[in-house]
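In response to a reviewer's request, we include the raw inputs and outputs for one of the modeled complexes. The two entities were modeled together in a single run.
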Amino acid sequence: MARSKALIFGGRELGSRLIVGTGKYPSLEVARRAIEASGATMVTVAVRRVDLGRRGEPSILDVLADLKVAILPNTAGCYTADEAVRVARLGREAGLSELVKVEVIGDEKTLLPDNEGLLQATRTLVKDGFVVLPYTNDDLVVAKRLRDAGAAAVMPLGAPIGSGLGIQNALHLRLLIEAIPEIPVIVDTGVGTASDAAVAMELGADGVLMNTGIAGARDPVAMAKAMALAVEAGRLAFEAGRIEKKNYATASSPEAGRVGGSR
Amino acid sequence: MLLRLNGSVAEAPEGATLEALIGRLGLPAARIAVERNGEIVPRGQYAGVVLAEGDVIEVVTLVGGG
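The model returned the following structure tokens for the whole complex.
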């Protein structure tokens, strides 16, 4: 039977297959309630300059400390491997965690990953002792190279970051998942609503990472709960093994003994 | 003396340490990372770093993000 792989990073197994971002929430209170409703035990954060004009104000870090979730710093906004390595090291120092979600962006309009820069950053950071989770294209060749470079998971995209378009290339994701049996595959980005998360899990993903799909919803707390249920439903459906698709009907009720039949 | 702090010009007394600068900014040391001229200064070593004219200091933290 198909089984989802355990999500164990840095010696800690995640209690949920849903990983959520912490950006774009209307308030810290909504962020707190949504993260709680999502059931996520690991969340992403970004590394940015301290705003020297606003120091002392409550921060998302207060919320995350209360919720006792694992922190996954990202390298969002980096366009070269060198930038990503630099930001990852700063994130490790600020967050006291070896985990990093590596993003090396190659195009400003689509925020699609730069394969070459991503591979380079992954190799450097793995050598440097990081637990590397790279955000990558839905390209199994690149995913294999990331795996060979020592990535702890691969995180292929469902659709461009923040687009809410859902899983755009289910075949590529399925092929990628089948090609990488050794490490977890976490579908990152593009989830717009609960069914998108369920589809990702039904394809065999080991987890889903999302931010805007929850934070941008009219009711982020309710959407967080919907996403948690969808991830769980999708995983169960994958493990249960769906029926084959057929073009014509097969009756669910017995043919024999129909009322008014010839026999 | 003049430094560059998070992209802006900042002033510090001659002989000031990184610890003094961070202390003056009132930042919680547990949640920041500091880079001096492109090199990370590990937490706990700020007191031993004497700042020099023209130093480029980056002070970062973790914020909400995906």
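As requested, we also summarize the result in words. Residues 10-240 of chain A form a domain with the TIM Barrel fold (CATH 3.20.20.70). Chain A has one domain: 10-240.
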